[in-house]
Amino acid sequence: MLAALLVMALGAVILGAALGYAAVRFRVEGDPLTEKIDAILPQTQCGQCGFPGCKPYATAIAKGEADINQCPPGGDEGIRKLADLLGREYKPLSAEHGVEKPKALAVIDEQRCIGCTLCIQACPVDAIAGAAKQMHTVIAAQCTGCELCVPPCPVDCITMEPVAETVATWKWKYPVVAIKPATAH
Hints:
Blueprint: H1 2-25, H2 32-40, H3 54-62, H4 75-86, E1 104-108, H5 118-122, E2 128-129, E3 137-138, E4 158-162, H6 170-173
Antiparallel strand pairs: 1-4, 2-3
């Protein structure tokens, strides 16, 4: 009986190892260019570019199906980075997609919130907490400032508040740039 259990356990370990190897060996990676483009985009998932999120927009840019100037949250700086990455000419932000604005976070006036959940349903990054007929609140660390929660609110209790520039938020405006150490010749 003990021998049978040991054989079964050993078989399970071998099968698990084989399946794990297959998963690693045949894992499909994303398109490297799409990944680089997506890393430049602001990850607001706002849809202002005409795509349902940053990754679909990055994919369209990589395929040559979208212009690099359709992202208002990424603004001028994002367009310049995309132009540099892709070796394309810089174009100003397309007015048809919106205007560049300062980084902002959604704030819910909890006294006026009726708990309708329409903002929760609209939020693409699950940054709003609450329940039906209960007040809601924004989880500031998760809010991307996409503004998609504002239009569906029936009592206009959501406002977009500019993010003050502090040590904690400076990276939103000025992304960290890696500096390569000097090499000895």
